[in-house]
Amino acid sequence: MSAKPAIVLVHGFWGGAAHWANVIVELNKRGYDRIHAVENPLTSLADDAERTRKMIRQVDGPVVLVGHSYGGAVITEAGDLPNVTALVYIAAFAPDAGESPGGITQEMPPAAVENIAPDSDGYLWIKQDKFHESFAQDVSADEALVMAVTQKAPIGSTFGDNVTAPAWRNKPVWYQVSTEDRMIHPDNERRMAARMNPRETVELDASHASLASRPGRVVDLIEAAANATTG
């Protein structure tokens, strides 16, 4: 078994496990050979948290749990397992008990909120022709096009699901703020980060898709968490 901890990556709304592609490659280059990316159904916070717990339980040894966007709410709900040594939030929601991503968004609406629309089945989508400017303005047009076409829409009600027992109250935390985020207001990210008393907060001049546009810096933060909590 590798001396390095396992890394479990949790995606958010409008993406899947493949959104972590650039981070996965960078982690592998740095010697992390136990990398797992959860594929969440995005049907409810309870469903997504349980899917994430199942992945964590398959891992022997320490786990650094990393969440992007809504994935931050998932790791907040699912990160209480004993082998989770650190929580890393990448431009992510970090709700407290009784809070939901939707409620947090309403407090400080982001720039691109108007580009999200429901379909007739209750799924929420980012309008394809607005995806690049809304979610990932600092990646290439081709990469953003693929993200837009393959986006994984959540059931709208998931936005309103409340966290019950936030794991960040008991686990060490690292947080990355995207200063040009149009999906979560950057000041909301700063507020959520500050109240968790993180070991480290990093601000990147990046879009919401910092995991795609700034993978090296994202992995720097993951590695800091790994080194601090597992040696």
Automatic annotation (TrEMBL):
Chain ranges of the AB hydrolase-1 domain: 7-220
Keyword terms of this UniProt record: Hydrolase
InterPro entries: AB_hydrolase_1, AB_hydrolase_fold, Sec-Metab_Biosynth_Hydrolase
Chain segments annotated as transmembrane: none
Any Pfam family the entry gives: Abhydrolase_6
Molecular function in Gene Ontology: hydrolase activity
Protein name (Swiss-Prot/TrEMBL): Alpha/beta hydrolase
Taxonomic lineage: Bacteria, Bacillati, Actinomycetota, Actinomycetes, Kitasatosporales
